[in-house]
Amino acid sequence: MRSNPAHYEMVAPATLDDVLALLAHAPGVHTPMAGGTELMVALGAGRLATRRLVSINHLRELRFISTDDGLVTIGSGTTFSDVRRSAVIAAEFGLLAEAASWTGSVANQNRGTLGGNIVNASPAADSPPALLAYDAEVRLVSVRGMRTLPYREFHLGYKKTALEPDELVHSIVLPRVYAGWVGYIRKVGTRNAQAISKVALAGLARMEGGRVRDVRIAAASLREIPVRCLATEAAVIGREITAETIQAARVAMMREARPIDDIRSSAKYRAAVAGNLVEEFLRRLL
Asked: Based on the domain organization, do 195 and 266 belong to the same domain?
């Protein structure tokens, strides 16, 4: 049954400081809404439990992409269309630019935000594998100040994050250290567009002397949260890309993947595809 909008309340404080003051005054009472691409779906389906919303979509303090010599910082209110249009992201963080192109329709990309995508905390979300592969950090803000944590520590469980009730994600920070690395990203879904991933995998590797000097592999839809595949990384780091290395990586991935059966796919299929994607990534390194 569709929700009745009259049963909901939304406020739109003028500034970021005003929003943070509201959240501090009544922690956990108001749910922040940026692009609304997830919350409006829940509203339309009659399953939006929260009744008090605070709009942050208009806050220019959260919509930016800034650069310096060592970092690119992306405000949490930056849309996927903003990400796609950014020259520096296209040049230095192509995996994230590619993931942004997968996120729903163009209309979704014009509204949906990078911060909202990670706060929604879906294990099948499009941006997390790229952010994990790039070893991103997240900056969280409240009236108490700003704190930073590695993105790999942000997701604590299914639909559970490290955000405190009075905090917002302020920005996502990417280190500019990947020149010369080989990148790979692929999403497997029912359709080429507007489909939730059955499996998605992002990989980055730095080769030296024919061996894998460093590697990052991250996945969506294989666990209850988006994850770095540390056992799979360990199976290939320091090794040449041979048939034996590829097989070791496939075995490691199959062991650390813990997918579920659901309406979109089976656990067996997801695990098998994850192994195929790891092999495809490693063969690209050749």
From this structure: yes
Residue 225 and residue 133 in contact, taking contact as beta carbons nearer than 8 Å: no
- pLDDT tens digits for range 99-109: 999 887 888 88
Residue 265: predicted pLDDT: 81
Total number of domains in the chain: 3
| Distances in whole angstroms, Cα of residue 220 to Cα of each of 96, 126, 277 | 14, 8, 12
Task: Return mean pLDDT, the chain.
Answer: 91
221 and 170 assigned to the same domain: no
| Residue 45 to residues 1, 67, 89, 266, Cα–Cα distance (Å) | 6, 40, 35, 25
Residues 102 and 169 in one domain: yes
> Rounded to an integer, what distance in angstroms lies between the CA atom of residue 96 and that of residue 77?
16
Condensed to tens digits (0 to 9), the pLDDT of residues 115-126 reads 999 999 999 899
We report the CATH number of the domain holding residue 38 as 3.30.43
My answer on whether 28 and 70 are in the same domain is no
* Number of residues in the chain: 286
Confidence of residue 236 (pLDDT cuts 50, 70, 90): very high
**What domain range is 95 assigned to?**
60-175
Cα radius of gyration rounded to whole Å, the chain = 19
69's CB contacts (< 8 A; 6+ apart) are: 176
The verdict on 222 and 269 lying in the same domain is: yes
Exposed / middle / buried, residue 244 (Cβ in 10 Å: 0-12, 13-18, 19+): exposed
The model's pTM is 0.94
For the stretch 183-201, pLDDT in tens is 999 999 776 666 778 899 9
Residues 204 and 271 in one domain: yes
Which residue among 55, 70, 91 closes a domain? Answer: 55
